[in-house]
Amino acid sequence: MTDIDQLQADLLAAIAGAPGLEGLEACRVHALGKQGVVTGLLKTLGGMSPDERQVQGPRIQALRTAVTDAIADRKAMMERAGLEARLATETLDLSLPTGGIGGGSVHPVSQVMDELAEIFADLGFAVATGPEIEDDWHNFTALNIPDAHPARAMHDTFYFDKADGEGRKMLLRTHTSPVQIRTMVTTPPPIRIIAPGRTYRSDSDATHTPMFHQVEGLVIDKGITLGHLKWTLETFVKAFFERDDIVLRQRPSYFPFTEPSVEIDVGYTLIKGKRVIGGTEPDGWMEILGSGMVHPKVIAACGLDPAVWQGFAFGCGIDRLAMLKYGMDDLRAFFDGDLRWLRHYGFAALDVPTLSGGVGA
Ligand code: PHE
Questions:
Q1: Which residues of the chain have pLDDT under 50?
Q2: Which numbered atom of ligand 1 lies nearest the CA of 291?
Q3: The CATH classification of domain 108-345, taken from the options 3.90.1200.10, 3.40.50.300, 3.30.930.10, 1.20.1250.20
Q4: Which of 53, 229, 303, 327 is a Cys-bridge partner for 312, taking CB atoms 3.0 to 4.6 Å apart?
Q5: Pocket of ligand 1 (CB under 6 A)
Q6: Strand stretches in the chain, DSSP E
Q7: What is the pLDDT of residues 57-85, one digit of tens each?
Q8: Domain extent listing, the chain
């Protein structure tokens, strides 16, 4: 055996026998550190004659590779063994009651999303979802907002640098309306869905956060009219605020993807200077959502015949709904993660909303 072979055998034996990560590190320093034996051999290459270097060079490099690989292998093995040992000893009892140390709570936004699902399930709506990272076709073009349309600028969109494989610009969805498109493209009508989720716009003050939540509603069927829209929204708002004395006001509006477009206001009563939703003779009106009859161009963009299929859609800010129902006044606190706020406004894990129990009880 040559010296190099012997050295390699010794080093590999030491690595294989290293008792722990620290021992292994000592082996590495001994062999490959600045003063290490292998490093020392590499340094001798400079002083060799070209012929000698041609023989010794590859052997010393091979030694270094063998030692480096052996250390990496052994290290990976030790880490795996360490993880397995932890997995074998640490346990998590998922059957333990919640609310023990400190106590977690359900965020009001999650609670309201559950309430929405419960209310709309009763009306025959399924829950649909779509990606938060969207392309501009689903978020804009298919919704009758072509490239140069001013509505694109109105949305304060966060764009990504890179386009997708088909050359579509990628963005963070600015509303939940792209889920309308995704649903119509994949699901044969009749369609009845709501789509709650996160949305993003470059906007920040007491009533706007760059990330916020919306719920989209979409109905596609034959013979759908504005009357269906009005009844559905009235039924929803009454169930959500848990009172019958709700008056809605419909105002003409404009969205590129609905025609006609209708903004919905809900009446409020002033009680000790505070606005409380409800009252048959309201003191004022608060805008709560945008809606309208789905534009024939949108239906056609999804491959359906607008002469056969009609429908309505609506979009509503969930955070605002939560604020109106549960009385918070600063939207930013929703996403601060302040434990005191979460304890105050959060819901118990088992406080699952049901229609029979009153959705927000
Ligand atoms: N997407 C609209 C918005 O974010 C809301 C909307 C949805 C309006 C569906 C009409 C129909 O402002």
A1: 101, 361
A2: 10
A3: 3.30.930.10
A4: 229
A5: 175, 177, 255, 258, 290-292, 313-315
A6: 126-127, 133-135, 159-163, 169-172, 191-200, 211-221, 248-255, 258-271, 274-277, 284-294, 310-317
A7: 999 999 999 999 999 999 999 999 999 99
A8: 4-89, 108-345
